[in-house]
TrEMBL record:
It comes from Apiosordaria backusii. Keywords: Hydrolase, Signal. GO terms for molecular function: hydrolase activity. Residues 1-18 form the signal peptide. Residues 32-184 form the Isochorismatase-like domain. Belongs to the isochorismatase family. InterPro entries: Hydrolase_YcaC-like, Isochorismatase-like_dom, Isochorismatase-like_sf. It comes from the Eukaryota. This is Isochorismatase hydrolase.
Amino acid sequence: MKFTTLLSSALLAVPILANSPFPWERLNKNDSLLIIVDLQEGLYTLARDYDPTLYKQNMLAHSALGLAFPSLPVILTTSASTGPNGPLPQEILDMYPTAPLISRQGEVNAWDSPEFRAAVKATGKKQIILAGIVTDVCTAFLARSLRAEGYSVWANQEASGTVTKEIRDLANDQMMRAGVNVVSLFSIVCDLMRDWRSSPGAKEILPWLDRYMPAYGLLARGHRAAVENGTVIPGEADLPL
């Protein structure tokens, strides 16, 4: 019964996807802006929909996208950083010592800050990559505000955190209905890169992935080890290619 219900739901979704009012758009590294939204040390404690160790890695990986793709301008913003929300982690601040850091003292939605709006508009970029804590407020409010202003938005789901998985799912659904691309870190990296032969390409991105997405980094290490030191063991030679 459960399988039938899921199958019916999937079939019903097909015409909705086929007739989406938001056509697929690819990220362009030369027209994209990276925004780090309220990934603050105090707010980190509210990100309970992910394992805390994994989530810290996700925060740092999102923030480091600008290191992998130097053409991306970066804007950092915080909310009431002198209060319980706390500052941005020093690891993130050290990545971009000269990037604009907009310290909001009251605006919940970053787009309500004139200084933040001016910083975004000054970049001239139309594609926005963002993540924040909490997903349903800091990420979703800004993402939908940017959509209303005509920007294309990619929300990094893995680097946005909130108090429960149910709230995360609701926030992601609201963003998608507004035309926000709710995506993974790896999809952002691959869309910005497009081709392993590009620049940045395999030479630059594989070391970055090894540090910030170790699952793929170890895949590459394993391939290197197999090529350099690998020996086919009994049984492997009989496996299909």
